[in-house]
Amino acid sequence: MVKSRLGQSLLRLECSLAECRQAEQRADIVLDQWRERWFKNRDRIAHRLELIESQLDQLTGKTDSNRPQLSVVGVMADS
Questions:
Q1: Greater confidence, 79 or 49?
Q2: Buried b vs exposed e over 22-35: b needs ≥16 C-beta within 10 Å?
Q3: pTM
Q4: Cα dihedral across residues 42, 48, 51, 55: positive or negative
Q5: pLDDT tens digits, residue range 58-75?
Q6: pLDDT digits (tens, 9 = 90+) for 33-55
Q7: Could you tell me the CA-to-CA distances from 49 to 37, 42, 73 in Å, in that order?
C-alpha cells in the first residue's frame, strides 16, 4: 500500500489516465457507429434520388442533360 502523498498522487493520475483512455475508446466506437449509419443512409438516399430522377424522366419523356440532377453531397472531415 502506498502511503506517501506522491505515491497517492501517482495512483490517482494513473487511474485518471486509464479512465480517459476508456472514455476515448468509447467515443471512438460511437463515432465509428455513427459513420457507418451515415454511409448506409447516404447510399440509401442517393439510390432513392436516382429512382426519382428516373421516374421524372419517364413522366416527362425527357432526358435533358441541362436539367439539374438530384444528388447527395457530403463533406468528409479529416480523421
A1: 49
A2: eeeeeeeeeeeeee
A3: 0.48
A4: negative
A5: 887 766 666 666 666 666
A6: 999 998 889 888 889 888 988 88
A7: 18, 11, 12
Q: Find, among 9, 74, 17, 76, the residue nearest to 46 by Cα.
A: 74
Q: What is the DSSP letter of 65?
A: T
- The CA distance from 58 to 41, in Å, is 26
CA distances from 52 to 15, 17, 34, 39 (A): 55, 52, 27, 20
Question: How is residue 19 written as a grid cell?
Answer: 479512465
- Half-sphere exposure (CA, 13 Å, Cβ side) for 23? 6
What span, in angstroms and rounded, lies between the C-alpha atoms of 76 and 62?
Answer: 34
